[in-house]
Batch of 3 targets.
Target 1
Amino acid sequence: MNGAILVLSGPSGAGKSTIIEHASDQIGEYYFSISTTTRPPREGELDGVDYYFVSREIFEEDIKAGQFLEYATVHNNYYGTSLKPVKEALSEGKLVIFDIDVQGHRLVQAKMGDFVTSAFITPPTLNELEKRLYARSTDNDTVIKNRIENAKKEIQAVNEFDFVIINDVVEIASSKFATIANASRLKKSAEELEKLVIHWQDGSK
Ligand code: 5GP
């Protein structure tokens, strides 16, 4: 596999999708991994674009069938990444971008560490996150409170990531994201490094 994986985590409302969209013409060809979830679609979200929206029964069948690279329960719903499209994109040499939670990051890191670069994206403060979640008004009070509680836990895992992007001004955050995305393509697996050493030694004769 020649591709690379870039894992993005951070609280809902951190602006991950906006940042990717903003930087999309600066990061070359990439595949954005569309997750499967049991959470109901928000207004404006489309099946097959934002997520694959499925029932708990279907999700649990997919778990049994071993279809997920990783999955986790977030905010009382299942979220998971299907293995097949990721493998295909990697074998085509693409950069695969994941928007997954910190549990998902740990699992992907454990399985595919060689290919993984990670960045945690967050608004500057908890207050600002709260403001943004209420301003986008896509969730009710209980859901927002649940997301804020989850965000307080997720920030504790920030030191597990290679990079942190504070999303204060979206243009600046997007430009930082583009730098990280382009650098992540240059990451070499242990196998590639071994080959490089052999080639380097042979070439010096
Ligand atoms: P939201 O409901 O706001 O779209 O997403 C809630 C959280 O679930 C976010 O932190 C997002 O990164 C995470 N998430 C989305 N897809 C996946 C996935 O496939 N796996 C995991 N582990 N987390 C996911």
Note: The two ends are 29 Å apart (CA to CA).
Target 2
Amino acid sequence: MEILILTDAQAVGRQAAAIVAKLVERNPEAVLGLATGASPQGLYAALADRVDAGLDLSKVAGFALDEYVGIPREHPESYAQVIDRDVTRPLGLDPRRVHVPDGRTADLEAATAAYDREIRAAGGIDLQILGIGENGHIGFNEPTSSFASRTRVKTLAPSTRAANARFFARPEDVPTHCLTQGLGTILEARQLVLVATGQSKAPAIAAAVEGPLTSMVPGSALQLHARATVIVDEAAASLLTLTDYYRYTADNRPVWQVVD
Ligand code: F6R
């Protein structure tokens, strides 16, 4: 795992965007896994700057990490809308290539199985963008999620509903259930890039990066991936113990050591 500690959230976004841009320059038809929430906003903003400067993302495909169950697609906080508003339009993606699991259908099990099939049919995800919850979740894989899990229905943890209440008019409006790519689905992506900023994420980052591999901290699944990069600001890195090593590694990277 590579850990990059940067000064602030903007630098985190710029670094993550540089990794995505490099992939797309190599492969204009790259398949991206798309996180929502606050964490990747800096990444998407920095990527939008690159699009303005000529980066072409029109052939890229995207698969959202998750979606709420039971709110209409038109709801401004449905992830279908959020992805459209924050990613598809500002980055100039082709909407026909952007997929979000269907949280409104009567047969959720069929919808989740279909989603995994769509990912496979697209050739798999080249780069999965991730945030992390304060309780260590990635996607909406709450603590005790199986490392082998596939896209499926999950019950949101009360703390996750409370954290996401900021996006809704009333706390009780936050859906209780969601569809999320499983940890097994996420681990199949060829590259993982997790971004986290702020002090509130420090315990989850320390547990995911340096703690034991445990389903109690779903983010620790990154330890199983051969190509995972964690990009954090100083605050989110503040409870890591090997920061000197991470900085030393980043500062002493030989030209031949390609990491992204
Ligand atoms: C969102 C997602 C979640 C968030 C996490 C952190 O698609 O999968 O895992 O990344 O809840 O949310 P923020 O970034 O809003 O703190």
Note: The mean pLDDT is 96.
Target 3
Amino acid sequence: MTASRPLRVAIVGSGPGGFYAAEALLAASAEVDMFEALPAPFGLVRYGVAPDHPKIKSIIARYQKSAEHPSFALLGNTEVGRDISVEELRRYYDAVVLASGAQTDRRLGIPGEDLPGSYTATEFVAWYNGHPAYQDRVFDLSCECAIVIGQGNVAVDVARILTKTTDELADTDITARALQALAESKIREVRMVGRRGPVQAAFTPVELKELGELADCDAVVDAADLVLNDASRAELEVLKWRDAKKNCDLLTEFAARKTSGRSRRLVIEFYQSPKELRGGDAVKEILMERNLLAGEPGAQRAVGSGRIDVVACGAVFRSVGYRGVPIAGVPFDEKAGVVLNLEGRVTRDAVAVPGLYAVGWIKRGPSGVIGTNKADAAETVKHLLADAPALSRCAEPSRDAVLELLESRGVRVVSYPQWRTIDAAEVARGAAVGKPREKFVDVDEMLSARTRA
Ligand code: NAP
């Protein structure tokens, strides 16, 4: 590419994967247009990271540097697949990078999974974080006992939000509506249940430690769950799983604690798989099968023992991993829930599709922390830049032409400067009530705020 005709790249999605790709492409003098379905950018950082984890959100400052680069534009409130297709993007861009994340959840595939009172972590997290598409969800928190299925960091987020006091959440950017609903919650016991043992739990020590520091909730662990089989001991001692060792130390400490009379309990349980949710109109009980572990160290899996316990509960939060959603016209691996790709080059029948790339969770699946996406995006961008000289040039290398097309379709595109106006309005609303921001939870509200000075 020449200075007068830089490489033009469309990035689909404005979460961490998208922004790390943008940063690497801008450093290589490409022009980057980032498409985002919502008026607000930052994807998972805004709508996935827990409201009581502001430090993790501070990564936005880095993404803002890319967003303010003269060769970058945000086309917010523009959904690829609805407002413009991937195929159409190819008319205006030399390359397209898919960065749409993992927007739905994995299913358990058990009877009663869809009963009222059974929720996905995806929808609960998106709801309390103010995602406009999830504000119509109603979470019935009027029961005594809630079950969280899964033991990843998302399950920990859900369990923590359910057991924190209103005071602990009041100065976060949780939505006013969610804070009110949580203030009225009658839940006294949350049981976070894993199908394997403490050594195999997917949560990380920093996140687990927080569960032992809640203001009005005891973290409870049964010491019997911490007795390890030989293979689990080998995972700690031979394979040296460092996070697992730290987790086990913390769990041992929780198990030794005396209950302090706090008004809530967070019980961390192992070796159980959900088999069925029952209750007629709504969840009233869950059947859990006790598991044993089988397999070599490093590859142990849960095997049902046949012993079933019936646990009374009024709410179940399924947190067993996210899943990518197919994009029209893009080859998709249904089993893995990712776009078919080889190191970020999208493939069809094992052959790279020229000019089409993927980064982040839609490329590799929902794993790793936010920073993991930096190396992930770097790999994809490296391949894109290597391919660039051989890519056929797009027919209409013009941002104005894209904007004209979108305008003709009635799309109200939100630019990055307009987002900053919305952002400032949210921060001002928050300051009035002692919060870092009060998010707009409605697209029309955001669109009105973008032009208000
Ligand atoms: P995850 O880490 O993959 O955890 C999924 C959990 O679901 C595991 O405990 C898994 O158990 C369990 N599971 C899967 N299928 C199951 C089934 N059929 N029945 C019972 N349990 C089942 O996923 P995640 O919690 O959604 O997190 C996604 C990524 O985001 C992770 O990399 C996570 O670390 C990251 N994240 C980080 C933070 C943070 O840094 N604070 C916060 C949130 C998320 P098995 O191990 O037995 O499969």
Note: The two ends are 39 Å apart (CA to CA).
